[in-house]
Each structure stands twice: as structure tokens, then as C-alpha cells.
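Exercise 7b. C-alpha cells:
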């Protein structure tokens, strides 16, 4: 009755691709801001906006991951309760008399 724990679906190649895509996109954005033909103040505003976007993306990813882990723990607890009830149940107890 035990369900095997799900294997991690994220491969090393996917992780490396995601990290590379993040690094390239962030670097490209910062280089584009640096080479804008404007004064430093608009550039600084765009750079701070980019920094805020990056940090909020990490926070959102962490919240989504935590919600998925929490759901997995709750479903495992529910399954453990059902397994315990089924293990304690004796279908012949009422008909033994």
C-alpha cells in the first residue's frame, strides 16, 4: 500500500540550462541599460527596476515551491491515516459471533 516517493523530475541539464538562461537574460538587460543613450538617472531607475524584478521572481519561485512541498506533505499524511485505518480494520470482527 506504500506509494513510492516521486523521483525528482529536474535533471542536471535542465538546471544548468535554467541557470544559464537566467544569467544571460540578466546580463543582457544590464548591458542594454548601460548602453542606453540617456543620463544616469533613468538608467539607475531601470537598473533598480531590474533588480526588484529579479528578487521578486526568486521570492515567487520560493513561495510556489513551498506550497508544492506543503501539499505533498499533507497528501502523505492523509495517505498514512488511511493506511493505518485499513491496517486496523478487521472485516470479520462483526461476523465472528
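Sequence design result:
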Amino acid at each position: 500500500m506504500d506509494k513510492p516517493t516521486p523521483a525528482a523530475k529536474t535533471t542536471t541539464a535542465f538546471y544548468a540550462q535554467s541557470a544559464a538562461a537566467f544569467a544571460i537574460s540578466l546580463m543582457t538587460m544590464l548591458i542594454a541599460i548601460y548602453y542606453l543613450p540617456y543620463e544616469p538617472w533613468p538608467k539607475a531607475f531601470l537598473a533598480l527596476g531590474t533588480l526588484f524584478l529579479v528578487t521578486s521572481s526568486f521570492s515567487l519561485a520560493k513561495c510556489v515551491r513551498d506550497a508544492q512541498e506543503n501539499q505533498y506533505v499533507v497528501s502523505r499524511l492523509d495517505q498514512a491515516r488511511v493506511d493505518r485505518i485499513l491496517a486496523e480494520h478487521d472485516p470479520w470482527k462483526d461476523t465472528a459471533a
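Instructor comment: Helices lie at 12-34, 40-88. The CA atoms of residues 38 and 65 lie 39 Å apart.
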